[in-house]
Amino acid sequence: MLTVKDLHKSYQVGKTTYEVLKGVSLTVEKGEFVAVMGPSGSGKTTLLNCISCYIPIDSGEITLGEKQLADLSEDALAKVRNRQLGFVFQDFLLLDGLTVRENILLPAIIGGTVTSQTEARADQLCDVFGITAIRDKYPAEISGGEKQRCAVARALINHPLLILADEPTGNLDSKSSRAVIRSFEQAKASLEATIFMVTHDSFAASFCDRVVILRDGGVWRTLEKGSTDRAAFQDALLDAIRDMGKE
Ligand SMILES: Nc1ncnc2c1ncn2[C@@H]1O[C@H](COP(=O)(O)OP(=O)(O)OP(=O)(O)O)[C@@H](O)[C@H]1O
Ligand SMILES: [Mg+2]
C-alpha cells in the first residue's frame, strides 16, 4: 500500500544544511493502522509531509498503491492528494463558513465529484462517527472532539487509499481523544481504511497495529501489537520510550 524506501530529507537554512530524515524505510499494509512516535524534532511531520508530497524529497522512494510519487507531475500529484490521500490535522482545519456536512463534502466539491452517492456517503460517515445530530451546525458551534470526528469523516469522503494524520488528538482531552481514536478504528473496521498517524500519545498509539519509533532521522524501533492487549501494548510503548531516554 505505502512503501517508503531509504528516504532522505534535509532543510537548507542559510548556508547550513539540516539533515532530518537519514534513510527512513517503512511499509504500511492495506487496512493497517500504524502510528509514528518519536521525540520532538525527530522528523515525524517531515515524514508525513514527504508522503503527502507537500515538500520535495532529497532521495529515496515513496510508493503509494502502484505509483511512485516522484514520477508524477504537479497535476497528477494534486489528484493523488485529493483522491487517494485523506488528511487529519492537529487543529482540525475545518472551514468556519461551512456546516459539518458541507465540510465533510469539501474534498468531493474540490474534486468536482459530488453526486447523490457522495452525499449519501457523507450521511453514512456522519452516522458511523456519531455526528448526525450536529451535521447542520457550524464548526464554531461544536466541540473539539466533534470537530475532529468531522475531520476524519472528511478525510474519508473520497475513499482514499490512505489517511495521514498528524497529532490528531494533540488538542483534545482524553475523552475526545478516545472518540477520535474510535473513529479511526471504525474507519478501519467498517470502511477498510488504512491509517498512518503521527502521535506523541502512547494511549492513542496503543490502539494501532504497529508503532514505528523515529529517532535521529531513522527508524529506531518498530513495535508490533500482535495479540497483546491494549494496556500491555501501551506499557511496552512506554518501556521503549524510556529505553530510548537511557541510550
Ligand atoms: N521548513 C523547515 N525549515 C527548516 N527546518 C525545518 C523545517 N521544518 C522542520 N524543520 C526542522 O526539522 C526537524 C524535524 O522537524 P519535524 O517538524 O519533522 O519534527 P517532529 O518530529 O514532527 O516534531 P514535533 O514532535 O515537535 O512535532 C526539526 O529540527 C525542525 O526544526
Ligand atoms: Mg510534528
TrEMBL record:
Protein name according to UniProt: ABC transporter ATP-binding protein
Native source species: Oscillibacter valericigenes
Residues covered by the ABC transporter domain: 2-241
Annotated keywords: ATP-binding, Nucleotide-binding, Transport
UniProt superkingdom: Bacteria
GO MF annotation list: ATP binding
Pfam families xref list: ABC_tran
PROSITE patterns membership: ABC_TRANSPORTER_2
